[in-house]
């Protein structure tokens, strides 16, 4: 669909599950070279298929981010497109949220996304190349949600980084945008229904029914729904967009 992506090196964090895995598959189907970087993968950058690479990475570990990006540059080349889908969440009302909950959400979702985007941006600037930075934030980056204090804070932070890096990198031809997914069927969402339901006195099935009832389009989202927007943002069609936060929520969030 997007022929220009065949020449791109795409780095996807959280690529071993859920939305990140959907993004990996979508870019591979477009003919891109794709590196999946995830905490749950084996150590060491290795080729795992035609144009497909995998590496273990904890995005919250600053030196690990730098050494993995160096290894990618040496083995494959400069990363043109980064999608930061690595993420975590803890469920708990604000009054019950611990400092450790706060640190975990902010470290992975906010600092981790920033560290990876910064590393890719530094290398693009040094190579005098244009590129695309695509953050996965959330509609929780725009709204408050009960029982998700630290997560909501972390996703708001991602949108602040998006807007600031967009302004700073625009003169370099590097665009920086965020996707704000709504309710997407992934392992994280399934776990959240169990844990979030427990603190609200609901079963996971009751939470799932409530989820569906809140979406104007009448269904929850798939990883492909999100991946398609990532492809668009990486494509030539989106060249005049930067600093934006695109909702992929079935109409649930409209601002
Ligand atoms: N599922 C949803 O409804 C939804 C909605 C909005 C935003 N999001 C966001 O989308 C992203 C992906 O979520 P998902 O639902 O696919 O979750 P998921 O749990 O299915 O996948 C997340 C992946 O991130 C990896 N990961 C976790 N911590 C990491 C770390 N420190 N370093 C590297 N990798 C790490 C995990 O191993 C996992 O493979 C997250 O940022 C999440 O907040 C999800």
From TrEMBL:
Pfam families xrefs: adh_short_C2
UniProt cross-references to InterPro entries, sorted A to Z: NAD(P)-bd_dom_sf, Sc_DH/Rdtase_CS, SDR_fam
Oxidoreductase in keyword set: yes
Keywords from the UniProt entry: Oxidoreductase
SUPFAM superfamilies per the UniProt record, alphabetical: NAD(P)-binding Rossmann-fold domains
PROSITE patterns, sorted: ADH_SHORT
PANTHER family, per database record: 3-OXOACYL-[ACYL-CARRIER-PROTEIN] REDUCTASE, SHORT-CHAIN DEHYDROGENASES/REDUCTASES FAMILY MEMBER
UniProt record similarity statement: Belongs to the short-chain dehydrogenases/reductases (SDR) family.
Protein name as catalogued: 3-ketoacyl-ACP reductase
Organismal lineage: Bacteria, Bacillati, Actinomycetota, Actinomycetes, Micrococcales
């Amino acid at each position: 669909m997007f022929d220009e992506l065949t020449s791109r090196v795409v780095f996807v964090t959280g690529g071993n599950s859920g939305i990140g895995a959907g993004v990996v598959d979508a870019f591979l189907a477009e003919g891109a070279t794709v590196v999946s970087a995830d905490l749950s993968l084996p150590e060491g950058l290795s080729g795992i298929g035609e144009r497909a690479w995998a590496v273990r990475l904890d995005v919250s570990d600053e030196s690990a981010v730098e050494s993995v990006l160096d290894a990618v540059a040496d083995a494959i080349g400069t990363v043109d497109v980064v999608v930061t889908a690595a993420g975590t969440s803890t469920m708990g009302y604000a009054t019950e949220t611990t400092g450790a909950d706060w640190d975990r959400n902010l470290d992975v979702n906010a600092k981790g996304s920033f560290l990876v985007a910064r590393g890719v941006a530094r290398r693009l600037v040094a190579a005098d190349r244009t590129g695309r930075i695509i953050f996965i934030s959330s509609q929780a980056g725009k709204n408050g949600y009960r029982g998700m204090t630290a997560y909501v804070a972390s996703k708001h932070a991602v949108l602040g980084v998006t807007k600031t890096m967009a302004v700073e990198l625009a003169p370099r031809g590097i665009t920086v945008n965020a996707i704000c997914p709504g309710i997407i069927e992934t392992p994280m969402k399934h776990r959240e229904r169990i844990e979030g339901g427990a603190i609200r006195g609901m079963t996971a099935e009751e939470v799932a029914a409530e989820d569906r009832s809140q979406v104007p389009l009448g269904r929850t989202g798939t990883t492909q729904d999100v991946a398609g927007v990532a492809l668009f943002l990486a494509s030539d069609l989106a060249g005049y967009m930067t600093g934006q936060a695109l909702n992929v929520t079935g109409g649930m969030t409209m601002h």
